[in-house]
Amino acid sequence: MAAATTVAALTMVGLAACSGEAEAACTNDVVHPDAKQVTVWAWYPAFEQVVDHFNETHDEVQVCWTNAGQGNDEYTKFSTAIEAGSGAPDVIMLEAEVLSSFAIRDALVDLTEYGVGEIEGDYTEGAWKDVSSGDAVYAVPVDGGPMGMLYRQDILDEYGIAPPTTWAEFEAAAVQLKEAGAPGVLANFPTNGRAFNQALFAQAGSAPYEYDPANPAEIGIEVDDQASKDVLAYWEGLVDEGLVSTDDAFTADYNTKLVDGTYAIYLAAAWGPGYLQGLSDTDPDAVWRAAPLPQWDLENPTQVNWGGSTFAVTEQAEDKEAAALVAQEIFGTEEAWRIGVEEAALFPLWKPMLESEYFRELEYPFFGGQKINEDVFLEAAQGYEGFTFSPFQNYAYDQLTEELFAMTEGQKEAAGALEDLQGSLEKYAQEQGFTLK
């Protein structure tokens, strides 16, 4: 395991170390103080209500929850705790894309010995693949991000544009909008889109990484494949013609443009409707609707995913069996998931809720009463087959962002940007002790 140890010590670049111990105080009330307590780090919206429901319905174990930060803020604290050998929670919320980055450091428990296999059938095939490696299962899926298209029907109607169903129609719509002198653009292509950009490549068939935590010292990298080059060349053409913008995602300016009509289309994950509705300056007169993500081939559609979170048990958990129970059961009831859906706008990967009539038939007032799950996201979720991420995914995303920015600035062409990305990732992997397949 010497090579794996070397790799494990170096794969967290991009998750900078920070000081501090795991927060001991519970944000929530513990209902049964004499019961076994399991500490949990998570940033889900409305999560305290979910925790309260779990604690009220479990006598033998209680959740002690802390919000240790969102995304990388939490990951840096976890990374510090791993290095220190203490300070990590028993259960931690992790995005599926970073599971390999922590599994390679022997920081996560393989849940198979704690009965996780008994609930595999409660999740979609793609969701389960994202948390598994061979026979090992490193987390329990919670919410996902199957992709669709949110659009301003009022804007498209004004310019006589039908919602595009293919990427060829998408380009034609962008041209039509520009030629009509519209003040905005059809959509935005963020160079810092990270998982968004990766999903676009995957839709055309890109499978950039070959990696198995069971053999952690080896990795296959192919980010300059033809599918990725074709997709990026497509977006390069839209950018060069001024048909889409290239604003950084998730900034104040981007948020404003999402809701003020600058973008007629928002290519979004299933959590996008909740994100959109949460923006305080949303135009009340805007008419939003949802439709499937445009396809390269309508006869052979490919569904992709952007984001999604899990619950993993850390190796520092004192009672791993109790921690595994929490990871498996905290979002394992209809009552918990009604909170997740109605209060937090989460998209469930738990099939009893995902396939329920309640969720399928749910009408969304923000979308004019449209049943967006039935119309768009359920099919996208069922069609998603899973994705393999690298054990240094944050670094890979940072490098991708740099290359896409260089392309949109006219410094590189699409093919050259991806070839340079291939070279930089191969070099980095070898420097960290990986052997290239």
Description of the molecule:
The protein is α/β, with parallel strands linked by helices and 437 residues long. It folds into 2 domains: 2-144 and 307-378, D-Maltodextrin-Binding Protein, domain 2, CATH 3.40.190.10; 146-304 and 388-436, D-Maltodextrin-Binding Protein, domain 2, CATH 3.40.190.10. It is 40% helix and 15% strand. The strands form 4 sheets. Strands 1, 2, 3, 6, 11, 12 and 13 form a 7-stranded mixed β-sheet that branches. A hairpin with a 2-residue loop joins strand 4 (132-133) and strand 5 (136-137). Helix 2 (47-57) packs antiparallel against helix 13 and helix 17 packs antiparallel against helix 18 (414-431). The longest helix has 18 residues, at 414-431. It is globular, with a radius of gyration of 22 Å. 49% of the residues are buried.
Keywords summarizing the entry:
437 residues, alpha/beta, D-Maltodextrin-Binding Protein, domain 2, 18 helices, 15% strand, disordered N terminus, Bact_solute-bd_prot1, Sugar ABC transporter substrate-binding protein, signal, SBP
Tell me about the biggest sheet? 7 strands, mixed
- Poorly predicted regions: 1-23
Rg, alpha carbons? 22 Å
CATH superfamily of the largest domain: Periplasmic binding protein-like II
Mean pLDDT comes to 93
Count up the helices. 18
CATH fold group of the largest domain: D-Maltodextrin-Binding Protein, domain 2
Q: In what range is the share of β-strand residues? A: 5-15%
Number of domains: 2
Structural class estimated from helices and strands: alpha/beta
Shape assignment: globular
The top level CATH class name of the largest domain: Alpha Beta
The N- to C-terminal Cα distance equals 18 Å
What is the CATH architecture term of the largest domain? 3-Layer(aba) Sandwich
Percent helix? 40-55%
Overall strand count: 14
